[in-house]
Design brief:
single chain; 293 residues; mainly alpha; 434 Repressor (Amino-terminal Domain); 16 helices
Length: 293
């Protein structure tokens, strides 16, 4: 389906007359040709049409492409990774590689690299270690980051050194701050910092972890209505306080894990519990009242 044909379908679904949608944009003959798919329009006019339709560019893209392939592939490889299913991971890697060959879109090559690194993680090998270079070079050479770069960095940072993480984050920080007023970007930035905190804490870089916790505190008010974000900020704050010797925070940590279990977010509860146990081992923390031990 051509863009003009889809615009017509959306216009009719919203009971919007053509003279309203295309006002000051297209002439009557141009409207007819556009909606039949016989002509295109400029990017500026297209964006104004979407604005008149009250549809975001992302929504239009999903409708036009009959779904969101990025999310589909991400769900597949995340599920396969947590199930430790190497054959399923290889299958998704092959799918995204074929997508890259078909479209030439570099993001599918990045997905392949990320999946191959996850396979190494599951197997405990370093067969695909060179794939890190592809991701690192792309992120380091990007002068301006968008949503894609934020998510790519967040999803792959466990494979980077803490020095590189600091370097890349510092370079991208000003760009990231530009997006903090947009909910989608703000949430993704918070998720990225959660991943950095986990890496910093497990590498025993506690001062670095506290620096990133401050970054989280700076956006805490902006995500006040996002209970997941607030809960995870509370979780990492309690973890760091526990490492610093405040054993009373143990109760808060266990309560947070219990809340995730109560909400049937079993994977998140398991992840938090695993991280909590790992922290106790790394920092030799002894807690008498552990109910999960």
């Amino acid at each position: 389906m051509k863009i003009g044909e889809l615009i017509r379908t959306l216009r009719l679904q919203k009971n919007l007359r053509s003279n309203v949608l295309y006002k000051n944009l297209l002439s009557r003959p141009a409207i007819a040709k556009f909606e039949r798919g016989e002509s295109d329009t400029t990017a500026e006019k297209f964006l104004k049409m979407l604005d008149h339709l009250n549809i975001t560019l992302e929504e239009f893209s999903i409708i036009y492409n009959d779904g969101n392939k990025d999310l589909d592939y991400m769900r597949k490889y995340v599920e396969a990774f947590y199930n430790r299913d190497v054959s399923a991971l290889y299958m998704v890697a092959e799918q995204v590689e074929n997508e890259y060959k078909l479209t030439g879109n570099l993001k599918f090559l990045h997905y392949r690299s990320l999946i191959l690194l996850l396979i190494d993680d599951v197997r405990g090998t370093d067969e695909h270690l060179n794939e890190i270079t592809l991701l690192q070079e792309y992120l380091m050479n990007c002068e301006s980051w968008g949503y894609y770069e934020i998510t790519l960095f967040a999803n792959s940072l466990s494979f980077y050194s803490i020095e590189l993480i600091d370097l890349v984050f510092e370079r991208a920080k000003n760009t990231l701050q530009r997006y903090q007023n947009l909910t989608r970007y703000r949430n993704e930035i918070a998720l990225m910092i959660f991943n950095i905190l986990e890496k910093k804490i497990t590498c025993k870089d506690l001062d670095g972890a506290k620096t990133y916790l401050t970054e989280l505190e700076n956006i805490k008010v902006s995500v006040v209505d996002n209970m997941y974000m607030q809960t995870m900020i509370k979780f990492f704050s309690a973890i760091i306080a526990l490492i610093d010797g405040d054993t009373t925070k143990n109760k808060s940590i266990l309560q947070i894990i219990e809340v995730f279990s109560l909400l049937e977010l079993k994977l998140k509860a398991a992840q938090c519990l695993e991280f909590y146990d790992k922290v106790k081992g790394i920092y030799t923390i002894k807690i008498k009242e552990d109910i999960f031990s």
